Structures are given as C-alpha cells and as structure tokens.
Amino acid sequence: MAMGQPVRLVLDASLLIEPSATGEAAAVALRPGAEDLLRRLRYSNLSVAISYVNGMSTNESGFLEMVTSSHSFGYIPLLAKSGDCSPNDLMLEWSRTSSCFYMTSRDDKGLISELRNHNWRVVSVGNECSIEVPGVLNVGRLQELLLTLATLIKREIGDSSVLVIGYVMKQSREEDFARRGAFPIYPSKDGLIFVPLSFELPLSSQLQEVDTVLHKITDEIIKIDPNCSIDFPKGISFSSGMSEIIRFVEEHPDICIIDQFKNIYPLLDRLQIQNILVQLQELGTEGKTKLRAPYSLKVDNFHDGELDKHLAEANLSFPLIVKPQVACGVSDAHNMALVFQIEEFSNLSVPLPAVLQEYIDHGSKIFKFYVIGDKVFHAVRNSMPNASLLKPSSGGEPLTFNSLKTLPVATKEQQLQTRVQDSKSVDTDLVEEAAKFLKELLGLTIIGFDVVVQEGTGDHVIVDLNYLPSFKEVPDSVAVPAFWDAIRQTYESKRGKAQT
C-alpha cells in the first residue's frame, strides 16, 4: 500500500447487530460500542461499507439499511456459494485498485480464505470468534478495531514518517473536530492518522501503539480544589482514564505528549493567567498601541470591609466582571456576574475565590485569536454591549451569566448605539507578536485568546486565554491543514530534542 492509494473497509453485519436479535419479529439493536465505531468511521476519510448475508430477517435488513444511510456508508451483499458465502464481484474488483480490510465476528472460513486469496486483510473480533486462517488477525473487543486498523494502515504504507496520533477529548469536541475532517484514519497530507484512545481498554497497551498523544486534559477534570490553584496539579481530581495516562507519561518520559501537562496547568487559574498576560506589556513601545492585561483583583470573600480600598489600589472601578478563579474544567468555572455597585456583592453566587476584573467598553465586538503552530488566525464576533446599555436592564441586581451559554450579546439596536468596530480597528501586527510571545512563553502548540479594543483609549486588552480551543471561526480549509502541520512540527521538535 502506498500513500494516496484508496482504503476500503467492509464491516460484516455480525460486528454491529446484537446476536440476541433473531426472528422476523425480534427487536434489532446495535452491539455495545458499535455506535461509537460507526460515528468515528463516518468522518475517517475511508470508504466504508457494511456487508450482509442472505437469510437476514426483514427487521435486521431494514435496520442495517437505516444505519448505512444515516452514516453515508455502502451496503454490500455477500453471495451464497455451496452453503457458504462468497464476496461479490465488486469486492473482488476493489482488491485490484485499493488496500482492502474486512472485519467480522462470523466464522466463515470459505469467505475469509477467498478474501485472503485476493489480498484482503481480515480481522476477526470477539473471543468466541478466533478464525484459524493464515494471515487473519484476531482481536477480543469491538473497541480495539480503530487502533488495530490504524496500525495496520501504517504498516501497509511502510513509511516510518506516518504518525498514529492517539487523542483524548470529550465526545462533543471530538465530533466537532471529526466533522470538520481533522481526525482522518486514512493518512492526512502530513501523514497523520488519528485514533481515539479508549478508557474501556488497557491504556498502557494502546499508548505503546501510538506515536504521540493529543489531549484536552481539562475535559477529564472531575473536581478542583481552588485553594490549591497555585500548586496545580495538586488539588485536581481527574477521571480514572486520564489519571492512568498521566501515570504512564511519568513512567515513560520519552513518550511524546501534545502538550505537556505542566504547561497547561497555569491556564486553569485566572490569577495565573493574569500574571502571564501582564508580561505582554513588555511588547509595548512609546507611541504605539497599548497591549495589556485587564486590571484585576483576587478576593476570597465578597464581604471584606476594605474592599473599596483594595479596588482603588488595583486601579479598579465599577462596573466589574466577577469570575471564578478556577478558569475551566469544572461546571461552574464559567458562572460570572457583572456588578455595578458594591452593594451587589451581598448575595453574589459566583464561586470563591474569585477574580474581579475591569469591564471594558469595547463597542460590542470581540476579536478571537488562534495560534495554531506557527500560524495565527483571528475572527470578529459580537460581544457584550457597553456598560451604559447593560445597567438599565440590571434592576439594581448583579447581571449573572454563563460565558459559554448565556453571554449577554449586544442586540442590533445596541450595536447601532455604539461605535461598531471591524477587524481594521485591531493592530494585527501587535497582537500577532503577542500571540507568538505567548506560544513560546507557555510552550503550547495551540492556544486561543480574546482581545477587546477599549473605547476612548484604543488599548488592546486580552481578556481570556485557553488551551486547544475549537477554532471554529477559522475556515476548515485553512484551519485543519494548520492543525495537522502544528502537530507534525511539535512532534518533530520534541523528538529532535529527545535525541540531542
């Protein structure tokens, strides 16, 4: 198999349908793990078909047709031959022009021998199905198939520069990346194969099969003790699967991780983020646009009798945004409030400790910047209106919101009342310089941050900083290749350092 040669994958229906479903009236259901397998194959960049045999019940065949249609897969009949089944002519034709894989839970030695004679690679799944035909690979569980397929494809290509990337992230994020074509199993133009790591299987054996691990470690946080934030990872409870990966990496320091856990921990704490952003002031020069962090103050309670004094010392005045000090990884990390006067702190529900941050009038526009390897992208989005437009709607109460779900974005009418900005109002050269500075300072491959331009002063203020964002505002045609390039560059850089 050479790079560029098509890969055909045929899944026997026995892999997918619960064997208990028999008879015309029986309800048909997918095996455990089958839905995840099909979902991931949908955007794998492989040509996928499901095969079936004569004699299936009407319920089974109808169910399979529905499954194949919903995932845009093919539907291939296996033909009866002397009591056994044989591949149809199309499958035999594929083997002349493609690298072909057949995966089954059915013990049909005649079919498998004929496929093997036509250079098909065969994998049998399930402890009850161990096919004794030369060249057949037997695996125990359905969840092993994707990693098995990835390693087989790499082996068939025979190119050591092809990398298998094992990734860990929550399902919604994974689906977003996959839908955009970022997680192919067929090698990308950079020679990358992506495969999910399964927490249902022993992780040590999976980690030994992949070349590097891409992770969104914050997706696997269960609990954070905010009192330990300065000493992260102390005080963080991870899922059992992520904890096992962390232990494995500690015991095998040569394994390539994108990115190192210790480089990400500072971004879990808004106070540490503030300390990072303050360093950007070194980039400013007299007579140029000012790039800065927002003025802020940490508080451990909202009933400090000297809060007025502390606010003045921190150069803060109302209104203020109140944010939890823990920046991500827990359910209430994005529960915030806009406070217009000191009395509104009395019944505030934002988790403590918290960070009080200046509210910056910014013309209802926010500029989202993404650093993907050595490339910088940005997009413009509608944002919160100026404070003068928000205060009348507050009714003397703090305005509470979740920044991921219920951010009070300016209405069209409110935007007309403010100085509407566009991307030309941003000093992109200055911000791109800051982007590269942050990437090097943090030692991270992909970061995102938000910039607002303060009305009146023109100050460029970075109000948020995070690791491995979705960069969904960047067109897939440029973002996905940049994503692949970034992973390849990081891998080669880390491997080069390890060998010196």
Automatic annotation (TrEMBL):
Pfam families: Ins134_P3_kin. It catalyses: 1D-myo-inositol 1,3,4-trisphosphate + ATP = 1D-myo-inositol 1,3,4,5-tetrakisphosphate + ADP + H(+); 1D-myo-inositol 3,4,5,6-tetrakisphosphate + ATP = 1D-myo-inositol 1,3,4,5,6-pentakisphosphate + ADP + H(+); 1D-myo-inositol 1,3,4-trisphosphate + ATP = 1D-myo-inositol 1,3,4,6-tetrakisphosphate + ADP + H(+). InterPro entries: Inositol_tetrakis-P_1-kinase, InsP(3)kin_ATP-grasp. Its EC number is 2.7.1.159. Keywords: ATP-binding, Kinase, Magnesium, Metal-binding, Nucleotide-binding, Transferase. Monomer. Kinase that can phosphorylate various inositol polyphosphate such as Ins(3,4,5,6)P4 or Ins(1,3,4)P3 and participates in phytic acid biosynthesis in developing seeds. Phytic acid is the primary storage form of phosphorus in cereal grains and other plant seeds. This is Inositol-tetrakisphosphate 1-kinase 6. It comes from Urochloa decumbens. The lineage of its organism: Eukaryota, Viridiplantae, Streptophyta, Embryophyta, Tracheophyta.
